[in-house]
Amino acid sequence: MMSETSLDFADFYEEWFGRVYNYARNRTGSRARADEVVSDTFSRVFKSWSRFDPAKADRRTWLFSIAFRAVADHYRAEKRRFWSPLELLEEPKAPGGGPAQAAEAAQDQKDLAAALALLEDQQREIVSLRFYGGMTNRAIAGLLGLTESNVAVILFRSVRQMRRSFPGVEA
Question: Residue 124 half-sphere exposure, CB side, CA atoms within 13 Å?
Answer without folding.
Answer: 22
